[in-house]
Amino acid sequence: xxxxxxxxxxxxxxxxAQFERALEYPAEHALRSLFLTESYWRDVLALSWKLQxxxxxxxxxxxxxxxxxxxxxxxxxxxxxxxSPRRVxxxxxxxxxxxxxxxxxxxxxxxxxxxxxxxxDGNRLKAWTLLTALEELKGFEETVGSARPRGQSxxxxxxxxxxxxxxxxxxxxxxxxxxxxxxxxGQAGLSIAARLKQxxxxxxxxxxxxxxxxxxxxxxxxxxLHNQVQVNHLPYMPFPPNWPVYIPKDKLANWFESYVDAMExxxxxxxxxxxxxxxFGKARWSVALRRGDGTARTLHPRHVVMATGVSGIxxxxxxxxxxxxxxxxxxxxxxxxGENWKGRNAIVIGTGNxxxxxxxxxxxxxxxxxxxxxxxxxxxxxxxxxxxAYATYNEGTLEDNDLIATSMPLRLARKTHQMITAQSKEFxxxxxxxxxxxxxxxxxxxDDTGWQxxxxxxxxxxxxxxxxxxxxxxxxxxxxQFADIESFVAEGARMRDGQxxxxxxxxxxxxxxxxxxxxxxxxGNEIATRVGPIWGFGDGQELRNMYTRTAQDGLWFIAGSLAxxxxxxxxxxxxxKALEEGLL
Length: 584
Known about the structure:
Elements: H1 8-24, H2 28-32, E1 35-44, E2 51-55, H3 57-71, E3 74-78, E4 86-90, E5 93-103, E6 107-118, E7 124-137, H4 152-155, H5 163-172, E8 180-183, H6 187-198, E9 203-206, H7 214-217, H8 249-262, E10 266-268, E11 272-279, E12 284-290, E13 296-299, E14 303-306, E15 328-331, E16 345-349, H9 353-364, E17 368-373, E18 378-381, H10 398-407, H11 410-427, H12 429-437, H13 450-458, E19 462-465, H14 468-473, E20 478-481, E21 485-489, E22 492-495, E23 500-502, E24 505-508, H15 515-523, H16 525-531, E25 555-557, H17 562-580
Parallel strand pairs: 1-7, 8-9, 8-14, 9-10, 14-25, 15-24, 16-17, 16-24, 17-20, 18-19
Antiparallel strand pairs: 1-2, 3-5, 4-5, 5-6, 6-7, 11-12, 12-13, 21-22, 22-23
C-alpha cells in the first residue's frame, strides 16, 4: 500500500513499481487501488496509438489493461535526468509530481504521475493524473547526438559529390517523390519537417511566399511575438540566449531561413499547392504544384501535412454597402505599414490582436484612427497577465516543461485557465474599468477560461494589450460599435445617429475562415466532409483532427503557436514513421 511519506521520490517510485506489477499480472483490485475515483489518464500514442484522455477510474480501468496487454509497458522508473519528484500546485491543487520513463514493445516514452491522498482510503496516495507519452520507436530512433550522421558519403570520397551537391540534388526531386509533402513553411511546417528529417523520412516543404520566413516578414511593420522567447523555440535549435524577450517578426523570419539551412530541410519557395487527389489503390496522393516560374509539377507523396496554420483563407465579411466606399479597403493580412496613412483617417474593423495592433500602428504613424468593435473581446495586459499561462517555462528545462504542458487533461487545463483569468482580471482591473467606461464590450471566454481557450476553440477573439487599450481608454483612438453603423458611403461610415465617420482607409481585421474551407478548396468537398471539423474540441477532449490521423488516409494537420508546433510535431512525426515502417 502507498502510505504518505516525507520521501517524495520513494513514494513515486513505489507507485510506479506497483503500477508495473498490476499491469504485468492483471488484477482489477490491484490496479483500482492505485487510482483516485476522480482521476485522469492522458495517453499520447504510447499504448493506444492515439491522442486520448480518459476521465475517471472506471474508464481508465476498462481501457488500460486491454492496451497494456497489447503494448507490454515495462521498466517504469523515475528518470534521474529530468526534474526530481516534487510537491507542486497544479490546477489549484497541491500534489506530488514525478517524471518517469518507461518502455513498450514498440518504443520508449516518458510520463508524469501526480499523486494525491485518498481521504476515503486512509489518505493513501493514489494517481490523480497520469501521462504516458511516446518519445521514440525502437529501431527507428532519431539521428541526433551519438546517432548523428557521420558524413562519410561526402567526406571520404574526394571524387564524388560533396555535401552541397548532395543537398542540391536532394531538394530538386528530379528523379523521385517525397514521402511527405508539407504545405506551409511557417513554424508548423518547419517543426514537422525537422522531426521527420531526424526520422529519415524524405520530406519536402512547399510555400507560396518567395522567401523563407515571409509569412512573418510580410506582416505589419511593428509586429513582435506576444509571448516570451523561452516558450517559442523550434525543435533541436533553441534561440540564442541573448535574444530579446519579445522577438521582432523580421528577426524570427530570418531565423526561419537559417533554420531551414542548418537543419537541411528541403524547401520550395514560390510554390502554390493547387489541388490534391488521393489514390486509395496506390496509397498515395497526386498533387499539382505551380512553381514560381509558372511551370507545373505533379508529385506523388504518401502523406500530405497541411501546415498552413489556424489562419488560412482571409474572412471577408459580407457588408453590402462597403462597395460604396471610395477609399482603400484592406484585409488585415494585406496591411503592411501605417506611414502611408499619416494625417489621414482610418477605420479598423475588428478588435482582436491584429485589429488593435494595426490601429496602434496607424495612430503611431499619425493617422486619425477609429476602432470598430463587432463582438465582445477579451483584453489582457501583455505583462504580467498574458504570460501567466507560461509560468512553468520560467524555470526548469524546455523538455520538462513541454512534458508538463502535454500532461494536463482538458478538464484540469480549463480549471487552470479559469484561475489565471480571475488573476488577470484583478491585475488588469484599472485597464478593464477604463475600457468599460468608453463602452468597450468585454468577455473572458467560455466559462471564464480566458484567452488560451479562445485560441484553442476559435483561433482568436482576444487582445494582448501592448498599448492600444490604453489609447482607447484615453480616447486617443476612437471606439465605435459595428452595430451603430447604418451603412458605408463614399466618404466613410454613416452612423445611425446621422453622423458620417470620414475615412480614407478601412482595414478588415476580421480573422480567417475555418481550415475546412481551405481543405474544400484544395481537395474537394468529399475529402473535406470525410475529414470533418478541424481545430476546436467539439464534444471531445483533444483538438479535432490535429496532430493525429484523420478519416482521410495520408492527410494530416498541424497548427498553433511555436510551442504547440514544437511539442506536437514529435507525435505527428512518430505516427507517420510508424505507418511507414508497418508498425501501425
